[in-house]
């Protein structure tokens, strides 16, 4: 059974002070909430402080990115090992903003995914088509390429444990979410491919979550789709009440 997984991707928002205040409030609100995994991905500057505030609570912590080398002359980068040591349990890899603004290829996503796993982090690997690709009917082809290359050299057991985030680029930060039917269709396709590539057990175990303009008023329909196992939430995760409302509406009992 895959329990719903909801992660807040804060992107380049919140100071250390703001981040800690948020997590202190959130940890009280989710204290008695079970049957769901709740994760926050703060900027690197706040990672350690957030991890301390979330320690021994049911709030998990993710890095938004990692570099694949352990250490070295890589100015401005943070390794998976360092993120883990700072308190992260998860690492977002291959977010479309990283692909588009920082030139991350599928090969880089693959190196980062392997490095995250080697460091003991659970990767949250993002895939998704652009509007142009969707209009050219290339959605499945793009997803296949990004997943096959991004997860190259992973064992079926490693795929089973990770989280794939389907994030159509046209839905991110635009207020235009994929409809539940569009998300359901893409997720079912991803699950079908996983089944072919890594077998039924791993495919059934792997979480496939949706991201792109998730809000309290659309999360219910999205997670009602059988292959949508939760959400990666950007803008709506910056406010604790809106994030909490998404968490509440994603619980199995709420659907
Ligand atoms: P959004 O971002 O919810 O603000 O669209 C989602 C994401 O980028 O993960």
Termini separation: 16 Å
What is the tally of helical segments? 12
Across the major sheet, the strand order is 1-2-3-4-5-6-7-8
Please provide the count of β strands: 8
Unreliable residue runs: none
> Mind telling me the C-alpha Rg?
17 Å
Please, how many domains? Answer: 1
Helix and strand content put the structural class at alpha/beta
What's the helical proportion of residues? 40-55%
Ligands bound to this protein structure: 2-phosphoglycolic acid
Key phrases:
TIM Barrel; 255 residues; 15% strand; alpha/beta; single chain; 45% helix; eight-stranded parallel beta barrel; binds 2-phosphoglycolic acid; 8 strands
Notes on the protein architecture:
With 255 residues, the chain is an alpha/beta fold. An eight-stranded parallel β-barrel has the order 1-2-3-4-5-6-7-8, surrounded by six helices. It is built from twelve helices and eight strands. The protein is 45% helix and 15% strand. It is globular, with a radius of gyration of 17 Å. Helix 1 (16-30) packs parallel to helix 2 (44-54) and helix 7 (139-150) crosses helix 9. It binds 2-phosphoglycolic acid. The site of 2-phosphoglycolic acid has 13 residues, from strand 8. 2-phosphoglycolic acid (PGA) is lined by residues 9, 167, 172-173, 211-214, 232-236.
Q: What's the SSE blueprint?
A:
Blueprint: E1 5-9, H1 16-30, E2 37-41, H2 44-54, E3 59-63, H3 80-85, E4 90-93, H4 96-102, H5 106-118, E5 122-127, H6 131-135, H7 139-150, H8 156-161, E6 163-166, H9 180-198, H10 200-205, E7 207-211, H11 219-223, E8 230-233, H12 240-250
Parallel strand pairs: 1-2, 1-8, 2-3, 3-4, 4-5, 5-6, 6-7, 7-8
Helix pairs in contact: 1-2, 5-7, 7-9
Bound molecules: 2-phosphoglycolic acid.
2-phosphoglycolic acid binds at residues 9, 167, 172-173, 211-214, 232-236.
């Amino acid at each position: 059974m895959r329990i719903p997984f909801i992660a807040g991707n804060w992107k380049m928002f919140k100071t250390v002070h703001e981040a800690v205040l948020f997590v202190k409030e959130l940890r009280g609100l989710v204290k008695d909430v079970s049957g769901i995994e709740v994760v926050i991905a703060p900027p690197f500057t706040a990672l350690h402080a957030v991890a301390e505030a979330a320690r021994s609570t049911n709030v998990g912590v993710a890095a938004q990115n990692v570099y694949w080398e352990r250490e070295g002359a890589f100015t401005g980068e943070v390794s998976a090992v360092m993120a883990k040591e700072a308190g992260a349990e998860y690492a977002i890899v291959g977010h479309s903003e990283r692909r588009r603004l920082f030139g991350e290829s599928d090969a880089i996503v693959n190196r980062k995914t392997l490095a995250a796993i080697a460091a003991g982090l659970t990767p949250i690997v993002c895939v998704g088509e652009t509007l142009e690709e969707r209009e050219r009917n290339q959605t499945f082809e793009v997803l296949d390429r990004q997943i096959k290359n991004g997860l190259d050299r992973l064992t079926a057991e490693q795929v089973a444990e990770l989280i794939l985030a389907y994030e159509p680029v046209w839905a991110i930060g635009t207020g235009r979410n994929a409809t539940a039917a569009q998300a359901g269709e893409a997720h079912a396709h991803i699950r079908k491919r996983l089944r072919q590539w890594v077998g039924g057990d791993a495919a059934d175990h792997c979480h496939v979550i949706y991201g792109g303009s998730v809000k309290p008023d659309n999360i219910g329909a999205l997670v009602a789709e059988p292959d949508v196992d939760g959400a990666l939430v950007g803008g709506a995760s910056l406010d604790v009440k809106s994030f909490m409302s998404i968490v509440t509406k994603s619980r199995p009992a709420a659907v």
